Amino acid sequence: MTTTAGNRLRVPAELGRVADLRQFVRSAAGAAGAPVECLEDLVQAVDEAATNAIIHGYRGEPGWLEVRAAVEGDGGEFVVTLEDAAPSFDPTSCPEPDLTIPPMARKPGGMGVHLIRESTDRMTYRPRPGGGNILTLVRSMRPGSMKEG
Fold it and tell me: Number of folded domains in the chain?
């Protein structure tokens, strides 16, 4: 079941529903006047975070994902919050991948958190009261203000 309330969308934790989360963020960022680059970065970050929660968090068990989107900081930042009830996992503690290893020589996986970091200005994590995760992704809406990689 999908529920929508203003700036919030909740969907079942199923890979087929990640597109709904992407569309929600795309629409919310577009309505807020976010530049295309900002919008696409956030959509990429939400896609990676939601997919990780479904595959690695819920591991095929039923669950839900909720996304909230808002403009903060005098209109200068677009903030997306992803919440779930999966087992706790802090992606901010993941080490950076070794990018000196050629892509074809690397083990599959392990790039999702890196892509989230590269697509946002800031990523914060906190455990959800009662169990689960709250991941906050922040991206500046000001052109040319993205952090240097």
Answer: 1
